[in-house]
Specification:
This protein is mainly alpha-helical and 317 residues long. It has 2 domains: 148 residues, Up-down Bundle (Ferritin); 151 residues, no CATH class. The protein is built from 10 helices and no strands. Helix 2 runs antiparallel to helix 4 and helix 6 runs parallel beside helix 10.
Length: 317
């Protein structure tokens, strides 16, 4: 099924989507409560209260829909509309209360943005009032979830703790995707060309071409993935530019050493640059994504080694 843009939805479909969102949010919160009930009963009780509120929101929306459009509600889910952050089918297991609180904060922020957009575009006074009211409630839920997470981590809470998470979402994530793609995907053609020709300039041309091609491809792919209206992921043009730029940086970094005429020294320096790039990627994943540093190093370096070996084998064929 082709995803639809938020702007293409009719007022009835926006209301139907809101009902679906509240139902999904309630089920996710219920599942989180089930996971932590044994070891963290107080936190589970807070989640139970949140679930009840989400269910009451759904009830308000249902009543308004029936009043305006009747009993038949179109089936419309978040996965049918461009602009929502992809979620796993089931909430992940084994999260700590603070990790769950962070996920709920982002979930509430996304729903809040949806209601704000819905309130802006509707011409129905009753619907606008309800959407605005729900946006305020979701904002309160987000703030409460942030407080829980900050208290668990023993950090000072800021007026917009989620601003950091949005920065990660809008800049760090697309940049990291680009850097990983550029640093890894261009290794095979670069080293294959270097070994096959044993001429630095030829290898540099292949590496540059691979970097430019990957940058254009990744930039378009990220920019066209969604319009950022509901996810808070930022403007598509900015995300596409960041991804494309970092893809080019990741690829050109290990191509530049082949400007050195001496083929052997160029190869050695290129391998050193590759190692530094992979460690930088692992650090960014550790710093902003919360991935364990050594695990990130192993994963990223292993992937890079496999691609380099592929390039070497192809070049010697």
């Amino acid at each position: 099924m082709t995803k639809r843009s938020f702007a293409s939805l009719s007022p009835a479909e926006v209301l139907a989507l809101a009902i679906s969102l509240e139902e999904e949010d309630a089920r996710i919160v219920q599942e989180f409560a089930r996971q932590v009930r044994r070891n963290h009963p107080d936190f589970a009780a807070q989640l139970d209260e949140l679930r009840k509120e989400e269910e009451s929101h759904r009830s308000w929306l249902l009543d308004l829909y029936r009043k305006k459009y009747g009993e038949e509600i179109p089936l419309l889910r978040r996965s049918d509309v461009i602009g929502f952050v992809d979620r796993p089918t089931l909430p992940p297991e084994g999260l700590t209360p603070e990790e769950i609180a962070e996920k709920i904060a982002l979930m509430e922020l996304e729903t809040q943005r949806f209601y704000e957009r819905a309130a802006e575009r509707t011409t129905d006074a009753e619907m606008r009032e309800l959407f605005s009211r729900l946006a305020d409630v979701e904002r309160q839920h987000e703030a409460k979830a942030v407080e829980v997470s900050a208290a668990a981590k023993h950090v000072e809470i800021s007026p917009r703790y989620t601003a950091h998470q949005l920065f990660v979402l809008q800049v760090i994530q697309p940049g990291l995707v680009g850097l990983m793609d550029g640093s890894v995907s261009t290794l095979a053609p670069l080293f294959a060309a270097a070994i096959a020709t044993q001429r630095s300039w030829d290898a540099f041309l292949v590496g540059t071409a691979a970097s430019v091609g990957a940058a254009i491809s990744m930039g378009f792919a990220e920019g066209l993935s969604d319009d950022g209206a509901l996810t808070g992921r930022g403007r598509p043009l900015l995300r596409g530019f960041v991804t494309g730029l970092m893809t080019f940086v990741g690829g050109i970094g290990h191509a530049l050493p082949f400007l050195i005429p001496n083929y052997l020294w160029a190869m050695i320096l290129a391998l050193v640059v590759v190692g530094l790039e992979l460690i930088a990627i692992a650090y960014i994943r550790y710093r902003y994504m919360g991935s364990p540093f050594m695990r990130s190093v192993v994963q990223v370096v292993l992937g890079g080694i496999l691609v380099v070996i592929s390039g070497v084998l192809i070049g010697e064929a």
